[in-house]
Amino acid sequence: MSIKHTLRNEAEVVIITIQGRIVTDNDTVDLLKEIQLNIDENKKTFYFDLSQLEYITSSGLNFFVRILTRTRNVGAEVTLCGIQGNVEKLFAISKLNEIFTFSTSLSEALNNVNAQ
């Protein structure tokens, strides 16, 4: 199974939920296009709910780096929410946990935005 995803706008935040496994670049082609449309619409805050993301390879890491680069180039921010298990370990091993912003859950991230 590749990934299933949903993308929704909630107030000033674009919420992307990803389920399943990112194994190849083909798994993220459609999602990348949808996110780029939101970047082009000048959206500035992107939350990725990864609590149901089971597995990623280097292709998955590449996807997240591409998103981070594209958003930072336009002054937008990315937060990865609910990352766990092997996905969390891969981010740590690759040291990408040092450049991304993380939240323990999507609800925590949304509460932080609402508090600001």
Summarize the structure.
With 116 residues, the protein is an alpha/beta fold. The protein contains 4 helices and 5 strands, in the order ββαβαβαβα.
Largest sheet: 5 strands, mixed
* CATH class (first level) name: Alpha Beta
Write down the Rg.
13 Å
The CATH topology turns out to be Transcription Regulator spoIIAA
Q: Which CATH architecture? A: 2-Layer Sandwich
Structural write-up:
- The chain is 41% helix and 32% strand.
- The chain has 116 residues and is α/β, with parallel strands linked by helices.
- The chain has one domain: STAS domain (Transcription Regulator spoIIAA), CATH 3.30.750.24.
Topology (SSEs and partners):
Layout: E1 4-10, E2 13-22, H1 29-40, E3 45-56, H2 58-73, E4 77-81, H3 85-93, E5 101-103, H4 106-115
Parallel strand pairs: 2-3, 3-4, 4-5
Antiparallel strand pairs: 1-2
Helix pairs in contact: 1-2
List key phrases describing it.
116 residues, alpha/beta, Transcription Regulator spoIIAA, five-stranded mixed β-sheet
